[in-house]
Amino acid sequence: EVQLQASGGGLVQPGGSLRLSCAASGLPLEDFALSWLRQAPGKEREFVAAVNWNGDYTQYDDSVKGRFVISRDNAKKMVYLQMNSLTPEDTAVYYCAAGQGPKYCSIRSYGFWGQGTQVTVSS
Fold this sequence. Notes:
Layout: E1 3-7, E2 10-12, E3 18-25, E4 33-39, E5 46-51, E6 58-60, E7 68-73, E8 78-83, E9 92-99, E10 110-113, E11 117-121
Parallel strand pairs: 2-11
Antiparallel strand pairs: 1-3, 3-8, 4-5, 4-9, 5-6, 7-8, 9-10, 9-11
């Protein structure tokens, strides 16, 4: 059974930082690109960041470029999202996902999803 367990969300003030983690099991992680996506209330799920199979290529949505950093550790079967300079617009449920699709930024590229972790940015 494939499992992607996201954690690390919470309440943070504007300008603060959070680090999300996602533990993967049940799949050969090296065969998959890994991604973080998010869904804000009343909005569609959107791409945030992705990393290729060995971590030497990353892609970010323009809204988080320069503030967020995605990384992975295949030996530990983990993927991370370091989020800095958070704003209220970053408030959402964040999901980690694994996929083999052709486009890193396309939600349809990801066939395996975790349960999500809530991030709330508010003063």
